[in-house]
Amino acid sequence: MPPIDRLHILLLSALDGQKEPVTRYEAMNIVNKAASQIDKPYSPGAVYHAIKRLGAEKMINFNQEMISISPEGAQALESHLLHTPIPESTAALLYIVFSTCLLTNKTLQKKSLSRLQVELIKFNQYNESASVFDSKLSALNLATNICRKHISVALKKIVLDLGD
Does residue 154 lie in a domain region? Predict the structure, then answer.
């Protein structure tokens, strides 16, 4: 199975929360609501291509226009959220937070939130070590580290609020 990218995780998370199958258009709207908070929304072609790939890999079920997550897709989503190493990038961390927000499976959401809390501690430690690593940081690097620190604080608050 090829690696699962951010769009696939958002799609699987969005479908995980649905009681009934949804149309591809509805799935695209759910995904783009989350994605637009981080970056530009995905094009319809990108979403439909991702749906086709997930369908070919048996991670989603679809008939005509209706789609739903399959047991294999739910297992891949859980594995990704709980066991795949989270990259150091802020954007990747944001995608995991938003994917977790889309979940309605409370058990998986709680486990994912616990993991995010640990990852945010590591993220914050990285920020601290990066700011002391070089006392001659350029203005751009200094600004980036300040932004990462503020993002880290905001993400911790979001994760704690989601856990309540």
Answer: yes
Give the three-class secondary structure for 87: coil
Q: Is the pLDDT of residue 148 over 60?
A: yes
* Residue 73: CATH number of its domain: 1.10.10.10
Tell me if 100 sits within 8 A of 81, measured CB to CB.
yes
Q: How far is CA 17 from the centre of its chain?
A: 14
Structure tokens at 104: 């309605």
For the chain, helix (H) and strand (E) counts, in that order, are 7, 3
What total of structural domains would you count in the chain? 1
Q: Averaged over 86-96, what is the pLDDT?
A: 76
Can you give the residue range of the structural domain that contains 23?
6-163
Residue-averaged pLDDT of the chain: 82
1 lies in some domain: no
Taking alpha carbons only, the member of 88, 86, 89, 116 closest to residue 100 is 116
The residue ranking higher by pLDDT, 65 or 72, is: 72
